[in-house]
């Protein structure tokens, strides 16, 4: 269960998207991904794959991505480099997984769209 909690934390850290109540930047002290229940794994090994993807990112980069996707933050060059290193497949899979959390199901299409835009605009 601990690895699933870590994966959930990482997933939510990486891609939380434009919801009405998330219009301000998230402070590092009050992590928004803490305590979310983990959705069932859609296929065996999927969470392990996501963990390998997320391990490329730093916590600060995850917060930067969070702020961009959920609000109006900016993803800077160092974080873009990490995102590109992680790869497009990982980016898409993390966005898909985040859209499965109850809290973000209504924003699943926005999550997918904004994360794809973020990835494509990173140089």
From TrEMBL:
<feature type="domain" description="Prolamin-like">
    <location>
        <begin position="53"/>
        <end position="95"/>
    </location>
</feature>
<dbReference type="Pfam" id="PF05617">
    <property type="entry name" value="Prolamin_like"/>
</dbReference>
<dbReference type="InterPro" id="IPR008502">
    <property type="entry name" value="Prolamin-like"/>
</dbReference>
<dbReference type="InterPro" id="IPR040220">
    <property type="entry name" value="DD11"/>
</dbReference>
<protein>
    <recommendedName>
        <fullName>Prolamin-like domain-containing protein</fullName>
    </recommendedName>
</protein>
<keyword id="KW-0732">Signal</keyword>
<dbReference type="InterPro" id="IPR036312">
    <property type="entry name" value="Bifun_inhib/LTP/seed_sf"/>
</dbReference>
<feature type="signal peptide">
    <location>
        <begin position="1"/>
        <end position="28"/>
    </location>
</feature>
């Amino acid at each position: 269960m601990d690895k699933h909690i870590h994966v959930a934390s990482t997933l939510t850290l990486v891609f939380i998207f434009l919801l009405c109540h998330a219009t301000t930047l998230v402070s590092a002290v009050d992590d928004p991904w803490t305590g979310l229940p983990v959705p069932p794994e859609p296929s065996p090994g999927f969470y392990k794959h996501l963990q390998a993807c997320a391990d490329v990112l730093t916590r600060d980069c995850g917060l930067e991505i969070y702020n961009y996707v959920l609000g109006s933050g900016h993803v800077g060059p160092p974080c873009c480099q990490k995102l590109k290193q992680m790869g497009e497949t990982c980016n898409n899979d993390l966005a898909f997984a985040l859209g499965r959390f109850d809290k973000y199901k209504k924003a699943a299409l926005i999550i997918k769209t904004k994360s794809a835009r973020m990835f494509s605009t990173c140089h």
